[in-house]
Amino acid sequence: MKIAIVGCGFVADYYMLTLGNHPDLELVGAFDRDPVARTRFGGHFGVPMFDTLEALLADPGLELVLNLTNPKSHYAVSKAALEAGLHVYSEKPLAMAIDEAEELVRIAHERRLLLSAAPCSYLGEAAQTLGRAIADGRIGDVRLVYAEMEDGMVFRERHQDWVSPSGAPWPSKDEFSVGATLEHAGYYLSWLCAYFGPVAEMTAFAARCFDDKGTGQPPEELANDLSVSCLTFRSGVVARLTCGLAAPKDRSLHVIGTEGILSLTEAWDYASPIYQRDTQGHWDSRPAILGKLLRRIERGRPGRHWFGRRIAVPKSGAKVPGTSSRMDFSRGPAAMAAALREGRPLGYGADFALHITELALVAQNANKFSMPYRPRSSFEHRPL
Length: 384
Ligand SMILES: NC(=O)c1ccc[n+]([C@@H]2O[C@H](COP(=O)([O-])OP(=O)(O)OC[C@H]3O[C@@H](n4cnc5c(N)ncnc54)[C@H](O)[C@@H]3O)[C@@H](O)[C@H]2O)c1
What we know:
With 384 residues, the protein is of the alpha/beta class. The chain has 11 helices and 13 strands.
């Protein structure tokens, strides 16, 4: 399938470096409105660069546009691509306002085009293995989920020095003005919605805890850097998702069922370990002495521990060469290409992306919505 990239900044490299995993995807060219980014990206990857968005959208044979622009450009670029009759895979969120995201989905449906959004990590081996373990009833009926998306004090790290392999700087100002929740909530929201279906009701809290991010931005330009969302899924499962930029790094997930607990250690690792423990949070190890020993070591320590019966996660080739990333960013567009080739509906399509976007927008800006909030969007749930 012929694809093109719009937006050639930091994250575009991660797509370029994982495109090779999906020979189905043929990149015809790219465009960025910033001429510096155009020269850098085209030069580094040897990719033909378009001079305008219109020229890219008019390229004969082009079928799918990867919208990798900044969140504030997502709506306009995706709308232009859909109106040009092209399928769209957008970086998260679909748009910065719910009604804009709804409009994109409406256009996609009207024109029978596919629209999907990052993150695609629910397609990763660890997420799929965890989903199957839940569906197989390994921990009985799931009642509660704790999902952590704590990125640590990124703004106190030397992020000014972070560059992608092609030399694109990490867009710190954009990240801090868009907000940690809009940037990160989608990871676990998409997993949870894939496992448990649409959310019936949520109560969220958001705050800006740090007014100085070291970027020179005035506080009013900075988004909330903490959110806590309590979600009730239509299936009855209750979840608490925390997204923050201050507490120590923790991207773990704990699924609590009537017969046990499943814990996954790292959302951003497609091969993340998964552990099963008993309902008391202990490892029912054989020989039992091992479990007893661990309990003694754990005694008095804060937090939840990872020890438990290890669930086998298939090996994952999801690495981005030259970086520490263990995610295959191109797997999302590849899933779209496969659905189109096989003439079947996309498992997690436009309605799913809209639901995730709506939940993330409400969580990020919780102080602007009355709570509890009942999402307007929904999607047809096809359990794993
Ligand atoms: N930075 C990360 O670590 C990271 C990781 C995963 C996902 N993302 C997501 O990827 C997206 C892009 O982030 P990034 O880090 O690459 O940002 P970036 O600022 O490095 O790159 C975005 C590029 O898009 C271009 N652009 C913006 N509006 C445009 C338009 N209307 N037409 C053409 N080009 C346009 C900009 O000039 C810039 O070069 C965001 O949605 C972000 O949430 C970022």
